[in-house]
Amino acid sequence: MKFGKVEHPELIDFTIPEDHPDTAAVLSKYKEDGDTQVYVGCAKWNRQDLKNFYPWGTKDELAYYSSQFNCIELNATFYRIFPPDTYEKWYEKTPEDFKFFPKMTNEVSHLRRLNEQVYPVVDRYLEVTALLKEKLGTIFLQMHNNFGPKNWDRVVRFVEYWPKEFPLAMEFRHTGWFNDEKVAQELYHLLEENNIANVLVDTAGRRDLMHMRLTNNEAFIRYVGANHQSDYPRLDDWIERLATWKSQGLKNIHFFVHQNMELESPLLSAYLIKRLNPALGCDLHIPKNTLDTLGDLFG
């Protein structure tokens, strides 16, 4: 993921901002709702991107990936709607506790930009995506950088149309959604009233997307490492914030690790998992091919 890439990450202040004042209030509604579910994964499973992750001779990348991680941020569905048998194969190859978090097709978000022609596309997308059954996690819709608040009516119509049985997260990138307090509040309240997660993007060149405003009991976080030594301490800061949110009532943590150049995404994910387990009281599997390197990192 090259979004938000900068030439000199050492010059960026990666401090996680203070929470939006309404986040604690939102989380307090869920405090008595049971245990917190934690999913951590990468954005892709193909061998070309996840270098040195797969053991020699691995024939089925998804089968191996899903034996090491409990989820995937499924970016492939952004570029095309796959035939039904593809989703059925994905379902069959993965363990029963595995989750897919697929990205909405760009025909909806970028080409048609939520206009009145997107709804048949949404229906077609959901018809095949539903074949993932209980392994389907939250679907996320990422809008184009230039999709601004002038399109507010389109957002409202889309949210009203969206079938509520499918969990949804939305990612807005245009600065106008957050720079104007009135616009931001209207957006947050629309998402909150419709139980839609507000995606947080942690990337070097767009710190404004760290608005720290949760709109339901889901933290959907897209973390982009800068291929820099700061990538690891940034994860430490996230663990501290997630522990705070858990104590306030957060019930769903969905954390997806990218890098500008996908060299260490599995290792960064494993580092996060190893530290999250004691901090949040969870017991996520630590991927095998990362253990030796993690030993070096932890001294």
TrEMBL record:
Listed Gene3D superfamilies: Protein of unknown function UPF0759 (3.20.20.410)
InterPro entries found in the cross-reference section: DUF72, UPF0759_sf
Superkingdom: Bacteria
A Pfam family assignment: DUF72
Protein name, as recorded: DUF72 domain-containing protein
Organism: Flagellimonas hadalis
